[in-house]
Model the fold of this input.
Amino acid sequence: MPGAEGELRELMAGQRDVWCAQQLAPDDPVNVGGYLEIRGELDTGLFERALRQAVGEAEAVRLRLRGDGGTLRQFVADGDDWPLHVVDVSAAGDPRAAAEQWMRADMRRRVDLGAGPLFTQAVFRAGPGWFLWYQRGHQIAIDRLGTRVIAARVAEVYNALVAGRPAAGGALAPVSVLMDAESAYRASAEFERDRRFWRGAVADLPVLAEVSPAAVSGGRADRLRHAGSVVPGLAADLGVAARRLGVRPDDLMVAAAAVYLSRSTKAAGVVVGVAVAGRAGQRLAGIPGMTAGVLPVCLNVGEGITAGELAGQVAGAAGAVLRHQRYRLSDIRADLGLAAGARLFGLTVGVLASGPPVRFGGCAAVTCDLPGCDVDGLSVGLEEHGEGGGARLVLEADPGLYDAASLGVIARHFASILRWLVQAPSSGSAGGAGDGWPVTLTGLFEAQAAATPDAVAVVCGDAVLTYRVLDGAAGRLAGQLAGLGAGPEQVVAVAMERSAGLVTAVLAVARTGAAWLPVDPGYPAERVAFMLADARPAVIVAAAEVAGDLPVLAGVPVLVAGEHAAADEATPGLAGTGLAGPAVSAASLAYVMYTSGSTGVPKGVAVTQGGVANLLGWMQAEYGLGAADRVLHKTPAGFDVSVWEVFWPLAAGAQLVVARPGGQGDPAYLAQLIGAAGVTTVHFVPAMLAEFVAGADPAGCGSLRRVFCGGEVLAGRVAARFAGRFGAVLHNRYGPTEITVDATAWACAGGGEDDPPIGSPVANTRVFVLDGWLGPVPAGVAGEL
Done:
């Protein structure tokens, strides 16, 4: 019956922290909340159906607390009789302000943890095609990550309903899975390892002060909030700078906080609080619940430190924290013998919007958080707005420690520090190579592997590789290749069919500093022999079924992938070879690809690390892949589009979905794979796009968000038909192999029979339109590129 009790369970550590904070400040509601601004014709009936299904699956919001023999326990209450508030604010002078006033009042409302409900759901009609969907939950039940998970699930169910497909239930795992994982962790050797790490990391930390019980709770709805104006391209610029410096955008926010603290306190050594999810593994990340926390990152902002040096220091320190993020700040305080109010840091960094915006059918949605996150003193975050890379700085503070005027001053200082990090050159950074390029292909991947080791990196048929597994396999294979002589400015031939093994091999070659040469096993024997003889590889790595068919080259070893215990974790990786790491610069070779030879003898095109890093940085800034994205790898390895298909998702924390060998020419198979794997990003040559558009069911490919097209002229009729049948954006791209995949890009707007243009130059690229005498033509005059 409604309200019936489920199994009684103990509170998780994060929930106990919130409970203690609630007891210290009983008038503080300790809520977390925010809203999605939805633009477009939302079907409110279908939306409510989707919302009720998702909330029904999200057990955490239905938790209730009760005393049991002197011990506080929790259970999941039955029933779905919660109210959905529908409020029309369209007649207000400022509909958003009217809606936010309602939300703030709800955020301040105290919640009975025993009777519930612990959440609120509301939809505001702000105007024609303008809706605000508000979620609020008590932090003892759910954290901000949990509200993101619910939002994504509502969008998933809504999109299925709009497409007329059944929305399968049970996609959100029970909250007991999160509880069981927490119990297992706190009884494990990993917990003890984390304890040893944190005892060493914080042994000499100064305690700032003890603050009032109200500030300890960190969830006050009356906290001061300063939100700057949206700066176009701010998030995109941070992304580009992060890739230039070889770190994550989050690391630059932490670096900016460290500089601000150092300038404010006149001290080189500073401690920044970093918001963490407190979870391990992709499955746990998809379960609403309360595990979030804040942990200290210790940094040294010495005099004369460069942006590159600071970013590298932050990446290392933050990476270590992420590896030990399940240990809680309350555990650290207890280990140090400190009271609950002891402050270890005065500034917390949190990213207020994560992942790409969700969509409800054709309606775009933007996340807007509300004050109430777990903050100790002062927090600063970057709130992203839309898909164009715009963002604004948001500061929240304890009104007992700050006032509105001081927050405005801090915001201006912080913005100036971010501009310095975005604009600062990387030369003089760690390593001291004045002409060095700190971003390498493997550096981008390794940074992501350190940040999300248990997230899924590659899906290939039944094979699923996490970032940790892929990183380990590539490192071990790199060690073997280095032992056979692979290194910078050398070529390693890779003769394998498209597979998870091919992805591992390419990563391994890049990790040695060598350039990979893709050798398609389907090439004629004469072409393979020519390529190998011309490129003179130092090593050949080949699949077992291919190795026997390769020509024998004197003095060139052949490493058969999978042999020599390559998958054995005891096999030493690159570090075990004695190499400190290859010396790779922007001018170092990344790969060699041979042209088709249609106009004569095929020629090998050598492409540099700097060229690839520039392309990937531009693509991420332009299109913004996130953890929710799935990129289809279907281009044969001998074509340069395969480079970004592999490295872009692995650098951005997305999933790489590998198509079967030969599958790139089968529209029906591709459509089935896109639907089954939830592919969001794919590339077609125009001829194949025409076949796909003609035969694929758009309803089954609803996950698509970006479709790239290049390699030949894109006909206007094909682009128009695509726009009429699919909801994704079609991007026309052009570029010869010699200039690193793409030189120009154009987002197709749809309709019309005219062929779409090839667009404008990508970052750090110039395009010249010349006449028959190779002179530039005047503007508006036709010429040759």
Remarks:
- Residues 404-423 form the longest helix (20 residues).
- The chain has a mean pLDDT of 83.
